[in-house]
Design goal:
The protein is α+β, with helices and mostly antiparallel strands. It is 32% helix and 26% strand. The chain folds into two domains: 123 residues, 60s Ribosomal Protein L30, Chain: A (2-Layer Sandwich); 171 residues, PurM-like C-terminal domain (Phosphoribosyl-aminoimidazole Synthetase, Chain A, domain 2). Helix 4 packs across helix 6 and helix 4 crosses helix 9.
């Protein structure tokens, strides 16, 4: 079976990856792994990889980089988001860089300067890593391992786990769906979009990556009764909701009209023929809790938009309700960002 660019399909992941490694913490919808110690707390880890844009591209020119959707800053933020979605405080990263044979030293320096700057912003350390020049890499590839900790005396770490979503709980989303993908597609299609839309709209859409951190909402959620969290990223909100439910072995009923969507995302997706519900949604945190309105209110009080969009159910069905229409969610597909 020849696989397409992007995340490995869920059925392939199950039979060719998860089945081989057994129950070691990895699984569908699980942002990170947890390792208890004899002392207090738990060590939490996650890993993310991407073809990355170097600092010399300014994080903006993706037109000649078919897979390069992220800067080093984006990738480290994604690791931090995953740790926060597990209820952990991000502490450190380890970075592996695989660089093409024609790489200039200035590119390596730019990538690491950006990584160091992002870690300072997030109060994280760069604990180590590897840098290698290889003919096997056509573009710069970065692998980031994030390390965090859950403190028992601070949070109830037995409550906030990926599998703790339970029937009857409310589903709450922070900010808006499709943020990260909107920024990528807008930057890639600037000229096309500027012909159709005013410059301020296109610039706003291209700058949506400033919303990518979910650390503030995760910390607020932990203090306001959240039971499970999942960072929505590649595969769009539809894929993220499926993964969230699959990880907990539950069903979902979500009202499509309540999914928070920026008008800029609507316009960019319409012009570039992309489905906004299948568009990379980094910056949006999925949360399950018993009092969704209370959690949404706590987030709104801190200036973070939030919406209660549905319920966790006791079936295995993942349902989208759109007025009188009922649709069943499919397994995550290839992210729409590859098409835009």
């Amino acid at each position: 079976m020849i696989m397409k660019t992007g995340k490995v399909p869920e059925n392939v992941l199950k039979r060719s990856v998860l089945r081989q490694i057994g129950g070691n913490g990895a699984g569908i919808g699980k942002d990170c792994a947890f390792f208890p110690f004899a002392g207090e707390g738990k060590l939490v880890s996650c890993m993310q990889e991407a073809v990355v844009l170097s600092g010399e591209h300014g994080g903006g020119d993706v037109r000649s980089h078919a897979e390069a959707f992220m800067t080093m800053s984006d990738l480290i933020q994604k690791c931090a988001n995953n740790l926060a979605a597990g209820g952990a405080r991000p502490a450190a990263v380890m970075i592996t860089l695989l660089l093409p044979e024609d790489t200039q030293e200035s590119m390596l320096r730019g990538l690491m300067e950006e990584a160091a700057g992002k870690c300072r912003e997030l109060d994280m350390e760069i604990a180590g890593g590897q840098s290698r020049i290889t003919g096997a890499a056509a573009e710069p590839v970065a692998v980031v391992t994030g390390i965090g900790k859950i403190y028992e005396n601070e949070w109830n770490n037995d409550r906030i786990l990926p599998g703790k979503a339970a029937p009857g709980q409310d589903i709450v989303l922070s900010k808006w769906i499709g943020l990260q993908g909107t920024a990528v597609v807008a930057r890639r299609n600037l000229e096309k979009l500027l012909v159709r839309y005013p410059a301020y709209l296109v610039e706003e859409a291209a700058g949506f990556d400033r919303y990518l951190s979910v650390l503030p909402e995760a910390e607020i959620a932990v203090k306001n009764g959240v039971c499970a969290m999942h960072d929505a990223s590649e595969g769009g909100i539809a894929g993220a909701l499926w993964e969230f439910a699959e990880g907990a072995g539950v069903g979902l009923t979500v009202e499509m009209r309540k999914l928070p969507l920026r008008q800029e995302t609507v316009e960019v997706c319409e012009c570039c023929n992309v489905n906004p519900y299948e568009l990379m949604s980094g910056g949006c945190l999925i949360m399950a809790c018993r009092d969704g309105l209370g959690l949404a209110g706590a987030l709104e009080a801190e200036g973070i938009p939030a919406a209660v969009v549905g319920k966790v159910t006791d079936s295995r069905d993942r349902i989208l309700v759109n007025g009188d229409e009922i649709r069943y969610m499919n397994r995550p597909e290839r992210d729409g960002v590859y098409n835009g």
